[in-house]
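Hi everyone,

Forwarding the result from last night's run.
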Amino acid sequence: MHTKFWQWITLFGLVAAGAIAPAGERMSPGEMAEKSEDERMAWAIRRLGPYQTALYEAAKRNRVPPRLLATVILNELSDYKMEDIIQETVYSTIWTIGYGQTSVKKVLERDEMRGLISESEIAGMIEQIKQRMPRSGARREIVADPPADRDYRRMAIERLTWQKLNNPAIAIEVAAREIARLMGRMSANPRGPWARHFLKGPFFNNPYASVKPAYYSCAWNAESGIADWERQCEKQGTLQLNREISLTIAVVAAYNSDKIIDANVSHQSVFGAAADGAEFLNARIHADNAVMLWARLLYQRKWSPQAPVTTKEGVKYYLEYYFKEPRTLKTCVRGGRQQAEADMALIKRFADGVRISPGPNNTFRIIGKAWMISGTGSGYASPNDPKLLADKASREKDGHPTRITTTPNWSMFILDQSGGMISKRHLPPEK
């Protein structure tokens, strides 16, 4: 007991001093709720930006909504205490670890590491375990009764699982498998005690088509009533948002405790804040936090893990954003209106709402809306760079359509005065 106490004190000191670098950073839902939406979005992009490809591909492989997977991961990372940090540095099969905050024991029981551990890795780990086993001395009982081969294999798989769950990309894949398992259980019995609050029927290609939008009245919990509520939501523009909220509550609560799937939780408490003494209180609080902190925000910001973009050595990535309002695209100093009209005819190839606005001293401005480069001109090495994604989120918050490109439009065009032609430095796609 005394030795264990000092081990924990030592680990706490190492983590606090930065000598041990865990996968996450200390955070609580309360602290996250105090952040502004912009701060939360920046935090989310910083945490998930490097793993967008892993999120997108894991969601696609396991047929779960990408934004739901991102919500589950962000919800786990925003409830990340010091004990969680320490647990990632001390081997255990029962503690929750990694981006998905799950345990070795549960993952192996559910066969969610299938295909993620090779036989060569198992053989190598068995050799390491055998070498570490004492041959004499203090731990005589182990030497007297060495593990059987099957036990060495089990220990090796457990150790490798612990290591891999501390890898964010693998933890994301395992979380996606768990979400798929939970959705599968609910889909198999959509009239079950938990699923009936959220599902109209089994999941098909578009899972949200089978989801009841959140916040419907208990009195409407019939086919005709739900249809009426869907029409109201559609008229208000909240149908997809409320469907995503509903599935978030269903999945996140079950992700915390899958026993809730078979529990008779009253409808009145499903879409309201979980009160003290509520059934499956901890699971319900996790679901409430997921909606309050992440599901609404990601939907409103239109953020979802994107399909991977092939990164090539030496290639740089840039953000372009589209102006909502007309702006000056070109000022014509020489040539008068005739030259301005000639320039305008060419600019219309790349811009919208193009018109001429007379200026002083026989100058003319060509006004329009077009794609322009945002941020640094030096570019980024990866399309998933956190700063690039943060800039993208900021522009989209302001209502600008955005796109990540390898051919940025630093200068919209260069006018060759002698030939009256526009030569493109970086030609954007023509409309």
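The longest strand covers residues 352-358.

Cheers,
N.
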